[in-house]
Amino acid sequence: MADRRTFLKRYLRCNRCLKIFRDPVTLGCNHSFCLSCLETFWEQEKHRNCPACKRKSSKEDTEVNNALKELADSFAGRQKTESFRREKQEKGCDGMLVCEHSNDPQLFCVDEQRAVCPVCDFPHQQSHEVISVEEAVSVLKEQLKSDLKSLQDKRNKYKQVEETYNEVREHMKKQLLSTERQIRAEFNKLHQILKEEEKSRLAALREEEEQKGRTINREMKMIEEQISSLSDSISAVEEELQKHSMPFLSSYKDTQSRARAQGSVSDPQLVSGALIDVAKHLGNLSFRVWEKMKEKVHFSPVILDPNTANRWLYLSDDLTSVRREDTWQKLPNNPERNIKYPTVFGSEGFSSGKHSWEVEVGDHPDWIVGLVKESADRKEERSALPKYRIWCLWYCSGKYTNDVGQTVKVKKSLQRIRVELDYDRWEVSFYDPKDMTHIYTYRDTFTEKLFPFFSIGKAGDAKTSDIKICQTAI
C-alpha cells in the first residue's frame, strides 16, 4: 500500500513546484504541470516550450486535464484542508515554524509551502505531501537561484538599453552640430547664388539707365542746337521788320529765305523707349530667378538615411553616395540601424505608384542594389533573397546575380543601374540606363512599404570606392 502511494505521489507531483498537481495541464508531449507553474515558466522564458523536453506547445495545450485534477485532489485530500486547519487551531498549534513540540522542524509541507510539526501536524502528513526540510531548502534555493538569474538577466537588458540611450543622446549632439553646419553651408550657397543674381540684375538695370541717358543727352543736344538756330532766325526776322521801306525791300528776301528754310524743318519728336523698362526687370522676378537657380541646384530621387547605415559605411554630406572603410564608426545601435551587413536604406519608402532612380556603381567589385521591405530584420543574418523580402541585383566575383540566386547575363559591364518600381503591379525591374537594356524583372506580392536598398563591399583595387544615386536637375 505504501509503495502504491509513493508511486502515485511521484506520478501526481509537478516537477516545477514539487507539489501535488493543482489544475494540471497535459501538453502534447504528455508532460504535465500545474497550470500556474506552466504559465509562469512561459512568461519568464518568453516562449511556449515544454519545461521538460523543450517541445513547442500550442494555445490549445493549456486546457486543464480534469481526470488528472480529480485524481490529484483526491490523493491530496484537499477537501479536508479547511476542517484540518480548524482542528489544528483547536489543539493550540499556531501554524508558525516552531511550536511547543519541536524547536527544530524537520519536515516541510509542499502543498502549503511551510515547515510542519511532526506532532501537531501528524494528520496533515497523511493528506499532504511532506518532505524533509533539507530537501525543501535545496529545491527552494534552486528555484530562488533561477528567479535571481531571471532578475539579473532582466537588469542587464535594462542596462543595455540605458547604455544605448546614452549613445543615442551623444550621437544626437553630434548630429545636431553636423546638420546645423551643413544647413548653413547649403544656405550660404543659395545666398551666394542669389547675391550673384542680384548683382547681375542691378548691373543690367544701371547699364540700361546709362545707355538711355546717353540717348536722351544726344537728342537734347540736337534740340538745343535747333533752338539756338531758330532763335537766331527769329532775331533776324524781328530786326528786318524794324527797317524802313527802302532798306527793308533791299534785304528782306535773304531773311525770308533763311526763315522759311528754318520753318520747313520737321517738328521735334520724343524718342520711344526712353524710360527704363521696369516691367522687364521686375516682372516675374522671383520665378525667373528660381529658373536660373534650377541650373545650379540638383535633385536626387533617393536620399540615404544615415540612421540605417551600418557602422562600416560612410555617407557623403548630401546623403547621395556611400563608401565602405576599413574602420567602423561609433554609432548607436538604434532600432533602424543595420548591424550585421554593410547596408544602408533610403530615407523614403514607397507604398504605391511608380518610382525610379539610377545608381552609379562604376567598376566597384561588390555591391547590391534594389528594394527591401520596411520590417526586414536589420540585426541578424539574412540573405538577399525574396523570402527575406529583398528584391535586388547583386554583383560579386565578376558576375551579376538576381533575387533568387540565378546568374544574370549582360552584354557589357554595367556602370550604372536603373531601378524601377511599379508598386501597384508588384514589379521591380533593373535596366542599363545607357540604352535602357532590360536586365531583370521580379514580380511578387507587396504588402508593406518598400525602401531603396544599398549594400557595398570593399572596393579593393577598383578606382570606384563609392556608389552613388545619380542626381538630375529639378
Automatic annotation (TrEMBL):
Residues 282-474 form the B30.2/SPRY domain. Transmembrane segments: none annotated. Residues 141-240 form a coiled coil. One of its GO terms (molecular function) is zinc ion binding. This is Uncharacterized protein. It holds the Pfam family PRY. Keywords: Coiled coil, Metal-binding, Zinc, Zinc-finger. Residues 14-54 form the RING-type domain.
